[in-house]
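[Q] Does anyone have a clean C-alpha cell version of this?
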Amino acid sequence: MLWLLDLDGVIWLGDQSIPGSADAVTRLRQQGHTVAFVTNNSFSTVHDYVDKLARCGVPADAGDLLTSAMAAAGLLQPGDTALIAGGPGIVEALSARRVAIVDRAPASAVVVGWHTSFDYQGLTRAFRAVHGGARLIGTNDDATYPTPEGLLPGGGSILAAVAFAGGVTPTVAGKPYRPMADLARDRFGPLLADAVFVGDRPDTDGRMAAELGVRFGLVLTGVTPEASPLDPPPAFVAPDLAALVGQLLA
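[A] Here you go.
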C-alpha cells in the first residue's frame, strides 16, 4: 500500500520531530508499504528536506518527496521569467524547469510561498509585477503554519496580500489543487489504487485525498484540534501518526 504523508504537523513541528513518527515510518516500510512525503511548504530545497527527514530518523531520497514548489514550477514553461516571493525551494524548482528568475518587473509570473522575510518592499515588488501583467501563482493557500509554539501565518496569508493588492485571483499549485494532484499521479501512478493520505488538516490534506480518490487519515498533531468540525470527514482519525499506523495495521 502507498502512504502519502504530510510533513508539517505529521512528521515534525518546526525543527522538532513528532514523537513516534519515525518509528511509524519504519514499521510501514518493514511491512512492505511504500512511503512518500507530500508537503505544501515550498521554502526548503529537496536536499534540505531529505536531510531534515534523516535528522528525524526517517531515511528518504529525493524521489520520495513532492513539494508545492515542484507543482508551481510545472505551471510555467522553460524560458518564462518569474519573480519569487518565497524561499530557496521555489528557486530550485523553477531553475530545474529552466525558468529565469528576476528580481523586478516585468515577469511572466510571480510565485509566492511561505517565507519569514516577507515585508512591504517584497509586497511592492510582487504587486508591481502582477500589476504589469504577471500571472500570480501561489505554492499553497494555507492560512496557517504549525510550530511547537503554536500557529503562525501560512503561505496563503502572504499570497492573499499580493492578490488583494494586485486585484487578481491567483492560481494555487499545492494541495489540494490539481497541479499537485497531477504531480502525484505522474510520480506514483498505479500505486494510488491502494493508498492513504495522512495529514493534519481536512481543508488541504482531506481535499487532496478526495482529489486523488484515496482514503484520508487525519492526525491531531498539527493545526486541527480534536473537537473541530471535519470537512471532508476522514476515513481515520488518530492522535498522531504512530497511532494511525497502529490502527490501520492492527
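[Q] Thanks! Anything notable?
[A] The first strand starts at residue 2 and ends at 5.
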